[in-house]
Specification:
By secondary structure, the protein is mainly beta. The chain contains three helices and 19 strands. It is globular, with a radius of gyration of 25 Å.
Length: about 260
């Protein structure tokens, strides 16, 4: 099986709807906002085999990966760098066979897919910080072993979004910490319970699927109603982290792009 790249669609810009207003006293239009629509994808593919049974095996293996709800991943990359797009089948276009594909052991297909999240995802970015509480270089007895305080502290917290659009982060908070407040651009999340030593709280702020888990168990209800802010594209963005204890706070960000490259 191979993908004929001469007819592939979906790697360039997505469809964007721009909201405008006009006035008879002002030439042109004023852009009030914009919205990116779901991305349409088209793959022209060829499937063949040395014999009919091999063709059917490849045919079945490929088309079983396409589902109307369960997404698959399309990855495009070069020289170690890649971007990905989650796709589901549209099941909207009928296919007409000009010849018997089983007898010929080959056939071409036009596969239509859709990306509900229309942006290409880049490689994840992760940053981590600890409390600025210093520790003694030497043990109280004045002899080895010695200890080094962490160089990356909450006061240094910042992250850069290299993507084309804003992206919502995923916070990973490891105890012991109490209290814990994390935020972006003045929008802060207050964790209403202490985190004991070894506990891990994960808060995914993506508005498509906001979740909060503590050691793998859902604590969205315990976290309560919270407001979340995205990381804007461009330069370095300072983060607000307030926490007491010896734990660690990490942030994970998946940059989003208009194009596959």
């Amino acid at each position: 099986m191979f993908l004929d790249t001469r007819g592939v669609e979906g790697m360039h810009f997505p469809t964007v709807t721009k909201h405008k207003s006009t006035s008879r006293s002002v030439p042109g239009a004023r852009v009030r906002g914009w919205r990116t629509e779901a991305r349409d994808v088209f793959w022209p593919i060829w499937i063949w085999g040395e014999r009919s049974t091999e063709f059917l095996e490849k045919y079945e293996a490929f088309f079983r990966t396409i589902h109307p709800v369960n997404a698959g991943t399309w990855r495009v990359g070069f020289d170690g760098a890649f971007r990905e797009l989650s796709l589901t089948g549209t099941f909207s276009d009928p296919h007409a066979y000009a010849r018997d594909p089983v007898f010929d052991a080959w056939s071409s297909y036009g596969v239509t897919l859709e990306a509900a999240q229309p942006y290409w995802s880049g490689s994840p970015i992760a940053r981590s910080w600890r409390s600025a509480n210093p520790v003694d270089f030497f043990d109280p007895a004045g002899s080895p072993p010695f200890h080094i305080s962490p160089s990356a502290t909450f006061a240094d917290a910042q992250i850069t979004n290299p993507g084309d659009v804003e992206a919502y982060p995923r916070w990973v908070i490891e105890g012991p910490l109490d209290p814990v407040i994390v935020g972006v651009d003045g929008v802060e999340v207050l964790v209403p319970f202490p985190l004991s030593d070894g506990s891990v709280l994960v808060i995914d702020t993506d508005p498509r699927n906001v979740t909060a888990t503590l050691n793998g168990s859902d604590v969205s209800q315990e976290l309560g109603f919270q407001r979340f802010a995205p990381i804007p594209p461009g330069g370095s963005v300072p983060l607000s982290i307030t926490a007491g204890g010896g734990g660690r706070v990490s942030i994970e960000l998946v940059p989003l792009y208009f194009r596959a490259f």
